[in-house]
Specification:
Blueprint lengths: L2 H7 L19 H15 L3 E5 L6 H11 L5 E6 L6 H12 L7 H17 L3 E6 L7 H12 L1 E2 L2 E2 L2 E6 L1 H7 L5 H4 L2 E6 L5 H14 L9 H11 L3 H17 L7 H9 L5
Parallel strand pairs: 1-6, 1-7, 2-3, 3-6
Antiparallel strand pairs: 4-5
Helix pairs in contact: 2-3, 4-5, 9-10, 10-12, 11-12
This protein binds adenosine-5'-triphosphate (ATP) and magnesium ion (MG).
């Protein structure tokens, strides 16, 4: 969205940008509950699985978790590049944990474990987040349960959070991965917004950007929901396009015709 579109609607910033501050996250009861359960998993030294279709807001739920965990007691490690062979996969985990690793997988493994023990001794509980975990090759996923199971003082020394598309849940049910599955205590499903939630979400993002009155007619919000299936990232794309089209036609209120016109300008069409 150009500055002139922002100016036309009297907004302070781009309402549907992805770099929103943690305090501005939209947390419906299901997302809040998901974050509560992740906090509980970290506090109880349990593992968790976060599943959802692309763009529904899994990373935003993780951001909610990050803002809830005190750095005095928890150390979050985030690994995004998991589509790697075993050696590189463990290298990524080493990097996240701040461990030097020039070694072979077997030794790497021991290095990671001893590092986790060292962190745990400092009474800082490590929380390792593996994002896009549906991309982890079987060879790497198949060894994770050993890390997940690693115990010190009879409690796992870290919390493992696997984040991925719904098929990850199905994959973990295969016999190959059942040892890992049985060690995971929580499943958090992040769902698309329903029609009412889509309207609330759009309004919140606009309010946070400084909108002083409604910019979308209620029927426009219904169409916005239908065309995006309530996937938040798609809502962002379409709502942003709709504001641009409206500004182009010098209309202060987005109606459903504008949303439909804007839809054709997005790859969603
Ligand atoms: N709780 C939220 N509050 C505000 N905006 C959100 C929220 N959840 C998602 N969004 C918006 O939707 C976009 C996509 O969210 P996110 O990156 O969390 O999805 P994802 O499920 O991790 O997607 P992918 O599977 O593609 O990684 C964000 O950039 C943000 O603009
Ligand atoms: Mg994501």
């Amino acid at each position: 969205m150009s500055d002139s579109v922002q100016e036309f609607f009297g907004l302070r910033r781009r309402p549907f940008d992805k770099d929103l501050p943690d305090e501005a996250l939209w947390l419906d009861p299901t997302r809040s509950d998901g974050i509560d359960r992740l906090v509980e998993a970290a506090q109880n030294r349990q593992h968790a699985l976060v599943l959802g279709e692309p763009g529904v807001g899994k990373n935003c739920v993780l951001r909610g978790l990050r803002s809830r965990l005190s750095p005095v007691h928890f150390k979050l490690h985030y690994v995004a590049h998991v589509s790697l062979g075993k050696r590189d996969f463990y290298k990524q985990i080493c990097m996240a944990l701040g461990v030097e690793c020039k070694l072979m997988p077997a030794t790497l493994y021991a290095t990671i474990q001893s590092n986790l023990v060292a962190i745990a001794r400092e009474r800082v509980h490590p929380v390792l987040i593996l994002d896009e975990a549906h991309l982890i090759p079987d060879s790497s996923l198949g060894t994770l349960h050993v890390l997940a199971n690693f115990e010190w003082d009879s409690e796992p020394v870290m919390t493992l959070i696997l984040v991925g598309l719904p098929e990850l849940g199905e994959r973990l049910k295969l016999s190959l991965h059942r040892s890992l599955l049985t060690r995971i205590a929580h499943k958090i499903e992040v769902a698309p917004a329903n029609a009412e939630e889509t309207a609330t979400y759009v309004q919140k993002r606009l309010d946070d950007a400084g909108a002083r009155h409604a910019l979308f007619a209620s029927d426009a919000l219904v169409v916005l929901h239908e065309l995006t299936g309530g996937v938040l990232r798609s809502i962002d794309v379409l709502a942003d396009a709709a504001l641009r089209v409206a500004a182009h036609h010098k209309k202060k209120l987005v109606d459903r015709a504008i949303v439909r016109q804007a839809f054709q300008l997005t790859p969603l069409a």
